[in-house]
């Protein structure tokens, strides 16, 4: 397993994509640090960019990586190694590469110009979102035999969680505006890893006061121990369930 | 050594292998033939555990392949087209394969030397030509002295010198009493390298016997016309089937 991971990582970390992605993230972070001295403004801008792009890039990259390595995966399967180890080594290599890019690209500017708790949360949320969407991408990849279809499914999931879902939530909130909706919105947030990440970030900033009564409720929920526990648990489920399903399908897939 | 019992496999609606039975013995060299899409590669992939059959069982050396991966240590597999991670160097690929079989210390480097791969070990796999990649695949298949060699179109894409080197190596291993399974469309290669012929047609074994027997049955004294006759028969069988279906 670790031997497989070692070589998978070696291949992926030397890829052009890993370098370009890290440099891109670093450039974004540096430019935002140059524009503003206020750390909370920096983390807000970084968050807005991150929440949109990191799931997209993770999903597309993980899908293409799986299909580019398909023949190699086949060759590995002909060797005396367990299927699950072949799969997990590929998945972990992708997650580690995406996470390292974020940690280096965003982390180095932070080391240079300072960071606060919200920026640390930003790094964690970035890593979590990368693994969630890499999981979606691997699930999409094992479900179909066609690269274009798999990329389509990954993109559809990204569009759903990043754009469509918020529209649905807004629609629900407007339709039922006469009822108390705090708990319902909280439940809705748990059903979307992107929103969950965003709320966790926003709670670190002082702008939750701008979000009215629901904002205050969220602030109270996410600052309590049980609230953080539930949020972490929900994110863990988002990380593990797609990956678990993908592993199960992979074990029975034909190559 | 390898027994295939009642294997069936469907891809969607297409029945690729239909209640398939075959025995492969050590010391024999088998030519696996059949038209495109007849199930040759699926059979090989089922033996290697890459395709999971709907029903039936395969045993390799009396050990069922279900839920066990150690039997693959005895198999050297050369895929039809070898794809490798682009950024891994030849030397690293070899050490990775060695890492997967830590208990084997004695390597067969004959092909590595013959193909001059040692001098190229710092080249990344992504920069290699298709033929060089085939050479790497071939060298890897023989590297661990496996008792079973499964070669899927081994000579496709190789230059004439490399083809001769590879053929000599296959003959040498055959003389050592190994089980060799070759698929190819190049009949002259098969005649040279194998002593038994297996002809698959639409997921069923149409013929499985020695090459002498094949020549006798078909009444031809040469290998290629004998195979051509076999193909003709399969076509007749098919036309008979359709007539029956209409009645």
SSE order and pairing:
The complex is a heterodimer of chains A (255) and B (247).
Chain A: H1 2-13, H2 16-35, H3 39-68, H4 70-77, H5 83-113, H6 117-143, H7 147-175, H8 182-190, H9 193-202, H10 212-223, H11 225-252
Chain B: E1 2-11, E2 14-24, E3 29-33, H1 40-48, E4 55-60, E5 63-64, E6 75-78, H2 90-100, H3 110-114, H4 130-142, E7 148-152, H5 160-175, E8 179-183, H6 187-193, E9 196-201, E10 204-210, H7 211-218, H8 223-246
Parallel strand pairs in B: 3-8, 3-9, 6-7, 7-8
Antiparallel strand pairs in B: 1-2, 1-4, 4-5, 9-10
Helix pairs in contact in B: 7-8
Q: Would you list the SSEs of chain A in sequence order as H and E?
A: HHHHHHHHHHH
What do the pLDDT scores of chain A average to?
A: 87
How would you sum up the global shape of chain B?
globular
User: Could you list the spans of chain A in which at least 5 consecutive residues all have pLDDT below 50?
Assistant: none
In CATH terms, what is the fold-level topology of chain B? Rossmann fold
Major β-sheet profile of chain B: 6 strands, mixed
Uncertain segments of chain B are none
> Any idea what the radius of gyration of chain B is?
19 Å
CATH class identity of chain B: Alpha Beta
Strand content of chain B: 15-25%
Q: Helix count of chain B, per DSSP?
A: 8
Can you give a write-up of this model?
The complex is a heterodimer of chains A (255) and B (247). Chain A has helices at 2-13, 16-35, 39-68, 70-77, 83-113, 117-143, 147-175, 182-190, 193-202, 212-223, 225-252. In chain A, helix 3 (39-68) runs antiparallel to helix 7, helix 5 packs antiparallel against helix 11 and helix 9 (193-202) packs antiparallel against helix 11. Chain A has 255 residues and is mainly alpha-helical. Chain A has eleven helices and no strands. Chain B has one domain (2-246): 3-Layer(aba) Sandwich (Rossmann fold). Chain B is 38% helix and 25% strand. In chain B, helix 7 (211-218) crosses helix 8. The model of chain B has no long low-confidence stretch (mean pLDDT 84). At the A-B interface, helix 1 and helix 4 of A face helix 2 of B.
């Amino acid at each position: 397993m670790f031997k497989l991971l070692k070589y998978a990582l070696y291949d992926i970390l030397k890829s052009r994509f890993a370098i370009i992605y890290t440099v891109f993230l670093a450039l974004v972070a540096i430019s935002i640090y140059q524009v503003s001295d206020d750390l909370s403004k920096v983390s807000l801008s970084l968050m807005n960019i991150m929440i949109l792009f990191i799931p997209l890039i993770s999903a597309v990259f993980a899908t293409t990586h799986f299909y580019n390595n398909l023949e190699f995966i086949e060759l590995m399967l002909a060797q005396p190694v367990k299927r699950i180890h072949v799969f997990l080594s590929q998945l972990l290599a992708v997650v580690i590469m995406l996470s390292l890019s974020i940690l280096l690209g965003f982390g180095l500017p932070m080391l240079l110009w300072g960071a606060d708790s919200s920026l640390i949360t930003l790094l964690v949320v970035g890593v979590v979102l990368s693994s969630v969407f890499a999981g979606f991408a691997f699930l999409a990849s094992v479900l179909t035999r066609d690269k274009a279809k798999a990329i389509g499914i990954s993109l559809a999931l990204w569009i759903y969680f990043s754009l469509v879902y918020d529209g649905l939530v807004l629609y629900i909130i407007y339709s039922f505006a006469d009822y108390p909706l705090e708990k319902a919105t909280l439940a809705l947030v748990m059903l979307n890893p992107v929103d969950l990440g965003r709320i966790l970030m926003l709670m670190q900033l002082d702008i939750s006061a701008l979000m009215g009564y629901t904002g205050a409720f969220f602030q109270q929920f996410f600052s309590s121990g049980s609230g953080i526990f539930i949020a972490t648990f929900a994110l863990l489920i988002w990380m593990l369930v797609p990956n678990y399903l993908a592993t199960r399908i992979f074990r029975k897939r034909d190559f | 050594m390898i027994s295939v019992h009642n294997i069936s496999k469907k891809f969607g609606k297409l029945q690729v292998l239909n209640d398939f039975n075959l025995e492969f013995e050590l010391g024999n060299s088998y030519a696996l033939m059949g038209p495109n899409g007849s199930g040759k590669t699926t059979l090989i992939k089922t033996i290697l555990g890459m395709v999971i059959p709907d029903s039936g069982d395969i045993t390799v050396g009396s050990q069922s392949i279900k839920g066990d991966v150690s039997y693959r240590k005895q198999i050297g597999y050369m895929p039809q087209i070898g794809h490798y991670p682009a950024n891994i160097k030849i030397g690293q690929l070899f050490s990775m394969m060695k890492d997967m079989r830590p208990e084997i210390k004695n390597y067969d480097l004959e092909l590595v030397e013959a193909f001059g791969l040692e001098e190229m070990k710092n080249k990344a796999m992504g920069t290699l030509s298709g033929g060089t990649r085939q050479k790497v695949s071939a060298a890897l298949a023989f590297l661990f002295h496996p008792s079973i060699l499964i070669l899927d179109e081994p000579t496709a894409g190789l230059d004439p010198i490399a083809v001769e080197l590879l053929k000599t190596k296959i003959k040498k291993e055959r003389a050592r009493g190994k089980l060799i399974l070759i698929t190819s469309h190049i009949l002259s290669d098969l005649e040279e390298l194998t002593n038994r012929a297996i002809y698959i047609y639409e997921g069923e074994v149409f013929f499985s016997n020695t090459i002498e027997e094949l020549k006798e049955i078909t009444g031809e004294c040469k290998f290629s016309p004998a195979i051509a006759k076999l193909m003709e028969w399969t076509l007749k069988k098919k036309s008979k089937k359709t007539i029956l279906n209409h009645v």
